[in-house]
Amino acid sequence: MAPSANGSPVAYFGASGVSALAFFPLWKAAAIGQSGYEVAGKGYWQKYFEAMKPPWRGSIVVIGGMTWARAAIFYGSDTGSKMMRDQGYGTGLSATVPSLVVSAFAQAVNQPFVRTSIMLQNPGEELAKKSMPNLAMMRHLAATKGIGSLWTGLDAAILKTAPKYMTAVVIKDYMGQLLAPVDPANKNAVLLKSAKVAVTAGVAGAVLTNPLDVVRNEMFKTEEGMIPCMARMSREDGPKWLFRGIGKNWVAVAAPIASTIFLTDRFKNWS
After folding, report:
1. Percentage of the chain exceeding pLDDT 70
2. What is the 3-class SS of the chain, one letter each residue?
3. String of b and e for 21-46 (b: at least 16 CB within 10 Å)?
4. pLDDT at residue 167 in the model
5. Is the peptide bond before 55 cis (omega within 30 degrees of 0)?
6. CA 227, 233, 238, 240 torsion: positive or negative?
7. Residue 10 pLDDT > 80, yes or no?
8. Do the Cβ atoms of 214 and 241 come closer than 8 Å?
9. Do 68 and 13 form a contact (C-beta atoms < 8 A)?
10. Which pTM does this prediction carry?
11. pLDDT at residue 211 greater than cutoff 70
12. Which of 26, 119, 204, 217 has the largest count of CB atoms under 10 Å?
C-alpha cells in the first residue's frame, strides 16, 4: 500500500532511504531464515539476534536497492493510480495496475543485486570478505553459471508481487470502512489510521507471499526452476517449508512499509 496523496518524489525517496537503513538488520535476519542458512545460537531468539548482527554484507547495495525500488513503487503507484482515475478507470483497477507494473520492473532491475546480497548472508561465504562483495559474487555467478543466473528466481519474485499488493488494496478498502472516521485536519489521527492499515496490509502480504520468498532464495542456492524447486522441498520437508523464516519475514516487511508511509507523510508536511 502506498502513501495516500501525491507529492514530491523527494519525500518518497527520503522516507524509503531512512526506512531501508533502519530496518536492514531485520531484512538480513529474514533472508538468512528463509534461505535456511545456519547461524550460531541455541534458541530461536538467540539465533534471531545473531542473524541481525554485523557483519552486514552487501548492506550498501541492499539499502540502495530498497530505497529506489520502494520509492518508485510507492510514488509510481500514487501517480499511476491518479492518472487512471482521471481517465475514468475504477478504483480497484487504478489501485492495483500501477503498483504491479512498477514493482515488476523494479524487481527485474534489482534481481542481480537481490540474489548476490542474499547469497552473501551465508555465514560461510568466502566472497563476502571481498572489498566489493556484490560485484565479486556477480562475476563468480556469471563465470560459473552464465549471465542469466543473475536473474534466477525472478519468476517467483514477480509472482509474489500480485498477492502482496492485491492484499494491500483489499485491506485498505475494507479497513478504511471499518475503522472510525478521522478528522482530516487532525494530522496525528490521519497518520495513525494510515499506519494501522499499512501494518495490517504488510503483515498479511508477508504471510501470503512467504512461500515465494522461500522458493526464490532456495533457487539461488540450487539453480533449480521454480516448480522443480517447490516439488523437491515438498518431498523433503512436507508443507513446513511454506513457513520457513515467516516469523522474521513478517516483521521485516511490515516495519519498513509502515515506517515509509509514516515518514513520507511527515516529509510532505515539512517540504
Report:
1. 91
2. CCCCCCCCHHHHHHHHHHHHHHCHHHHHHHHHHHHCCCCCCCCHHHHHHHHHCCCCCCHHHHHHHHHHHHHHHHHHHHHHHHHHHHCCCCHHHHHHHHHHHHHHHHHHHHHHHHHHHHHHCCCCCHHHHCCCHHHHHHHHHHHHHCHHHHHCCHHHHHHCHHHHHHHHHHHHHHHHHHCCCCCCCCHHHHHHHHHHHHHHHHHHHHHHHHHHHHHHHHHHHHCCCHHHHHHHHHHHHHHHHHHCCHHHHHHHHHHHHHHHHHHHHHHHHHC
3. eebbbbbbbbbbbbbbbebeeeeeee
4. 67
5. yes
6. negative
7. yes
8. yes
9. yes
10. 0.74
11. yes
12. 217
AA letter at 236: E
Nearest in space to 68 (alpha carbons), one of 105, 23, 27, 118: 105
- CA nearest 169: which of 118, 222, 94? 94
* Residue whose C-alpha cell is 542456492: 221
Nearest partner of 35 among 153, 138, 175, 144, judged by Cα: 153
Torsion of CA 11, 17, 19, 20, to 10 degrees: 150
- Measured between its terminal Cα atoms, the distance across the chain in Å is 22
